[in-house]
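hi!! sorry for the late reply, been swamped w classes. u asked for the two structures so here they r. pasted raw, havent cleaned anything up. first the sequence of the first protein and right below it the tokens
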Amino acid sequence: MHTAMRSAATPLFLALALAGCAPVSAPPGARASCPDDAADLPTRSLYGAWEARIDGQPGVARVELRRHPDYDGVRGTIQRAGQPPAQLAGDINPSDGQLALDESQDGRSISASWTGVMDAQSCGKRFSGNWHAATDDKDHAFTLERVQGKQ
């Protein structure tokens, strides 16, 4: 946790504010501090619309995540062009800050798994890592990026 800032005029505060992040105890209207890793993100920061790019797959997939009804995690869908939506469920591991999502085409078996980390300085708006398909047993790089204005 960041220590309290006494003056909004300090160089550190100004640098953080210009970068889009400010200390946790910043004056009203300033943004909260960007966490160092996803372990410090509240689960609700994952709710909303995302775009997924997976190496070896054409185009951009649309991801919608919302509160999981059974545990402190997320549940949602991924929609790829020309395909039926697949289901997603997962969370952020509190010990290592890794995003973990399971993907299912049929709602019963896992067809792919996602393991990623929050990109530095993204304030929880971009993750990257490996998407592992059960069908070819290979890892494919992915990026998951927040759709602006859709939280």
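now the second protein. again sequence first, tokens right under
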Amino acid sequence: MTRPRVVAFPVRGVLTACTVVLLVGPTLLVIIASVSIGRQIVFPPYGFTLHWYVHIVTDAPTWHALGNSFHIGLTSVALGLLVGVPAAFALPSFGIRSRLLIVLALSLGISTPIIVSAFAFFGIFAKMGILNHLTAVGVAIGIANLPFMLWPIMSIIEDQDPEFPAAAATLGADPVEQFLFIRLPLVTPGIVTGAIIVFVASITDFVLSEVLTTPSDQTLPVFIYSGLRTSISPGLGAASALFIGIAAIVFIAVLRLGGVERFLFRQ
């Protein structure tokens, strides 16, 4: 007597597909609806037109908001480079407990609820009189995203052979030459990866930008959200699609560098 053949149900595949649909579905709906002829976002879209994308190219408020986002993103990256890179190089010289405490302190921006951080920065900037400065907003977002600069660099440093500087010293390299020609080139992929991640996380930030910016210096996420209060037009969908495209291109560049895989999947 033969047993009936049992067909294995691909539970993992079904769950993965459902998760991908839930994550990607809303984005695809917005992109598809952005080519609608009508003045309201509807699905399925009514007709097909690229008018809204052409409108974005000539729309000054949209480009102003995008420029503000880039300003904040570059400020955050600069802060990450000035603080995260030296910290990553210095941490291995500390003991385990001291290193853990320093990493926890530098990671408070991401471990603290973002809305709490937003109002804390609001109070500090108001007392300092810099509440209406985009650079200050970039510093706040840079502090919140500092771990994304720190972690990839630390991951690469931990994977390095600690004997490299000593080997360079035996060949006559002084400490400055060891840093410039040995250590720095080895961690450059981590620095670039961290900078790109911080840049994308900064330009797509909403909570801190919503609390800290004013109507005259809105970032693109806040600008899109503000537009939803009046009318949900395909133009907002086109602006969202533009933003999604920029973020996707940057993340593809990160994946090409390979630093993300080394950081996420190191043994």
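hope this helps!! also noticed smth abt the second:
The first helix runs from residue 11 to 33.
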